[in-house]
Amino acid sequence: MKFNIKVWRQAGPNAKGGFKSYAVDGILPEMSLLEMLDVLNEQLTKQGEEPVAFDSDCREGICGTCGLVVNGMAHGSRLKCTTCELRMRHFEDGATVTIEPFRAKSFPIIKDLVVDRSAFDRIIAAGGYISVNAGSAPDANAVLVPKDIAEKAMDSAACIGCGACVAACPNASASLFVSAKITQFALLPQGQAERERRALRMVEQMDKEGFGNCSNHAECEAACPKGISIGNIATMRREYMRAAARYEERAEAAGAG
Amino acid sequence: MIKVAEEPILNANIPDGPIETKWKTHKANIKLVSPANKRKYTVIVVGTGLAGGSAAASLGELGYNVLNFCIQDTPRRAHSVAAQGGINAAKNYQNDGDSVWRLFYDTVKGGDFRAREANVYRLAEMSANIIDQCAAQGVPFAREYGGTLANRSFGGAQVSRTFYARGQTGQQLLLGCYSSLMRQVDAGRVKLFPRREMLDLVVVDGRARGIVCRNLVTGAIESYAADAVLLATGGYSTVFFLSTNAVNCNVTAAWRCHKRGAFFANPCYTQIHPTCIPLAGASQSKLTLMSESLRNDGRVWVPKNKGDKRPPSQIPEDERDYFLERLYPAFGNLVPRDIASRAAKRMCDTGYGVGNTGYAVYLDFSDAIQRLGRDVVRERYGNLFDMYHEITNESPYETPMRIYPAPHYTMGGLWVDYNLMSTIPGLHVLGEANFSDHGANRLGASALMQGLADGYFVIPYTLGHYLADSGVLKNKVTTDHPAFKEAAAAAAEQTKRLVGARGKKTVREFHWELGRIMWDHVGMSRNAKGLEGAIRDIRALREDFWKNVSVGGSDGDFNKNLEFAGRVADFMELGELMAIDALHRNESCGGHFREEYQTPEGEAMRDDKNFCYVGAWQWSGNASEPVLHKEDLEFDYVHLAQRSYK
User: A123 and A244 share a domain?
Assistant: First the structure.
């Protein structure tokens, strides 16, 4: 197969970027989009031109490293599919494929297609955890988790932190990412002790990072390679309201103020 | 001719006493660092996978100052994330006769009697605590209706002791670990350094005192000083180019430690995983694993007639050879990985393979779908089936999967003693990066267990002992020390040399060629002639690499080619050591299969009289002349026997 690749090139965070077109040939239908970029980069290296910078690692859709906007859609048009899993058989031979980085104010571009998603780490650090030091856990079966609850928690926990939800959202909101973590822990008995603090702090950090608000476009759900439901966002809102009311009560009762 | 050290016997510092009490006694005897003093120590942890992440989090919880480095953009993407099937623990929740003893026994036997008994016993003991810890972190393990934890079976065991979270167990355990790590980041006890690649270990007065790394965004060479260094940088399967590992997995950090004096143990012990999606084309960048858990319900077969090209649905039942069930009736499809891989290879080599290339066997779920229904099968394996479908364009619900073995895990690694310390005082090695617990073959669902045991429950004790005992606190070192300057200058020089290389071949072409040599001659099946040839070929390729490689770009910013070039340069040296190790080990054991040493049925034949030792190699300054040191292995509890899964 042959393709015309129209790809975003940008030398650095503050450089001016723009599209550049390249032709590639000999692409097999079973190759992934990233493998096509590998072919392009080999070609460029041989010509003495700088290869296109992009991030990828596991190449099986679980690490969340890769993330490109392909023909205008985060991770391309396949449902529940990461960029690294996107096979060229889904494209028409001879077509132009447009490839851009995830674009959002909170994901500054590092180079070409590589962006900085460390805002996600800071949101998790703000409360996306259950405080339990190594060695202090009770027997695992001492805390029962009904099967349906465990399954729902797993649905939310499946998030790979790729950021496609942000890239797809017209507001560049991180609500799907943040709500998936809040929901996972709100569902589980282990997550109850810090439930309010978690919701408040994570939402606060999300706002601080400059992500936009959710206005129910649901583009995030459509782009999510792991099928995370926007039902999580509804849960996050309830959790936030609930937390805002209760956390103050608890803080007052504890004399903290 | 191999050079063997005059004073060989490596001391593993295994505590005295019966195996059941060794760890307990050791914990009671080793030195402690008081809570008030812990914050005075700085510890570098390289790697944020299950071993590194759990170590960094746990040491932060204890109050140490932790500097945690990774090559990924965030700790949550370390390659542990890709583990699918599960994690073993001797909980005996199933009431099926499991115990610490049985897990210990299965692991020693599964490793074909080439692991250290005391380490394996400790690992089995800790397995239960790991599950407790992870459940408390909110890891959404699979549950029964009553809310208790569910289990499944994995290869090499006759009990059901594997805990899992759908087909994403590694991801969920890693996210649990990552959440604990980020909690420590928030508390200010762990400082994260993502997108950094360790390029050297700094040794001062014989002790590991810091690292030199390259900032993968700015290109800057950075130095960090500490009181101890923990390496948890994973395995080296990508030496084969095509493997199930992530494309950034590499041996560089471990290899640079090796060149600074850390012995590299059993490099030839590599695991070729039986159930991977077969190679489709020349531009493929990796092979995808299909979890071993699939062998719980999937049946492996090939046609009984050579070269039978009919589609699987048209091959009647009595013309199918369920060869694992036929050859190993007691374990059937759940034999250990090395056995299953070799059996599949044999079938394909003798002309029974399926698919376009003839290098694949079927993994068939039709019986399971009939017995359990589509929904139950989907619940157990849905995401794996989807993944297979997406890659091959075939639905495993309708037609059997085609699978073939692929490099997956490396049991070899830097040599460590019982305290997980390498031959360089202060340098500790955790998880897949060390060699310690799996012998010559790792059982499924044991890698996650080992990584987390090392990080959550071993190193928090043994590191304290080292710090208290070594007196490093009285002798603080900064990055102004000449050893740091020297290491940073060397790292900068190599980077400059690589980035300036303007030869005719790309880094990827060299890596591909090395991978072919490794797979053909140092892969699933090896012989002396092939290994000798491989050693020659690797040397020639290495020479050509430094003359002919083309890297390009700048060393002052994000440059993937440059990253890969440094890694491939190290693989060129490691590859030779793997071949040398494989050639010297005149026996077959676990994943190391030498064609000259097999039973009449084609099973691995060990030579306990001459090879019941760990082969730990010392860097001599020349990649072709490593020096062999031996750690004799003693089996006081599990008696040496020919492994049988019949």
Answer: yes
pLDDT band at B429 (very low <50, low <70, confident <90, very high): very high
> If pLDDT is split at 50, 70 and 90, which confidence band does B283 have?
confident
Calculate the average pLDDT of chain B: 96
Interface check A225 vs B, CB under 8 A = no
Residue B368 token pair: 């399971």
Q: Select from A12, A46, A62 the Cβ nearest to the Cβ of B506.
A: A46
Q: How many Å lie between the alpha carbon of B277 and the closest alpha carbon of chain A?
A: 12
Chain A residue closest in CA terms to B456: A134
CB contact under 8 A, B180 and A129: yes
Q: Which of B117-131, B275-289, B526-540 has the lowest mean pLDDT?
A: B275-289
Q: What ranges make up the beta strands (E) of B523-581? A: 549-550
Which of B374, B407, B440 marks a domain boundary?
B407
| CATH number, position B280 | 3.90.700.10
Domain's final residue, options B372, B407, B442: B407
Nearest residue, CB atoms, B77 vs list A46, A63, A147: A63
Is residue B495 located within the same domain as residue B376? Answer: no
CA distance B139 to A129: 10
Q: In what order do the strands lie in the sheet with B270-276?
A: B270-276, B401-410, B361-364, B299-303, B320-321
Last residue of a domain, one of A111, A138, A161: A111
Q: Are residues B359 and B493 in the same domain?
A: no
Supply the CATH number for residue B493's domain.
Answer: 1.20.58.100
B263 near B577, Cβ under 8 Å?
no
**Does B183 sit within 8 Å of A160, measured CB to CB?**
no
Q: What percent of chain B has pLDDT over 70?
A: 100
Calculate mean pLDDT across residues B369-390.
Answer: 91
Q: Which of B558, B562, B568 to mutate to test the interface with A (most CBs of A within 10 A)?
A: B558
Domain membership of residue A138 as a residue range: 118-253
If you measure CA to CA, which chain A residue comes closest to B286? A59
Whole-number pLDDT of residue A255: 67
Q: Clarify whether residues A192 and A130 are in a common domain.
A: yes
Helix (H), strand (E), coil (C) string for B65-120: EEEEECCCCCHHHCHHHHCCCCEECCCCCCCCCCCHHHHHHHHHHHCCCCCCHHHH
B147/A145 CB distance under 8 A: yes
Residue B509's domain comprises 486-632
The whole-angstrom distance between A111's CA and the closest CA on chain B is 7
A56: domain CATH number is 3.10.20.30
User: How many CB pairs below 8 Å do chains A and B form together?
Assistant: 225
> Confidence class of residue A256 from pLDDT cuts 50, 70 and 90?
low
How many domains in chain A? 2
Confidence of residue A257 (pLDDT cuts 50, 70, 90): very low
Contact B149 A141 (CB under 8 A): yes
Active site residues of B: 337
Helix residue spans in B393-481 (DSSP H):
447-452, 459-470
Say what the ipTM of the complex is.
0.97
The CA distance from A202 to A187, in Å, is: 16
CB pair distance less than 8 Å for A57 and B182: no
- Name the band, by pLDDT with cuts 50, 70 and 90, for residue B327: very high
Of all residues in chain B, the percent with pLDDT exceeding 90 is 91
The token pair that represents B89 in the structure block: 């623990």
Of A35, A51, A191, the CB nearest to B283: A35
Reading the block at residue B262, the tokens are 């850390």
For residue B189, being part of any structural domain is answered with: no
Closest in B138, B185, B557 to A125, CB measured:
B185
Residues A98 and A44 in one domain: yes
Contact A124 B61 (CB under 8 A): no
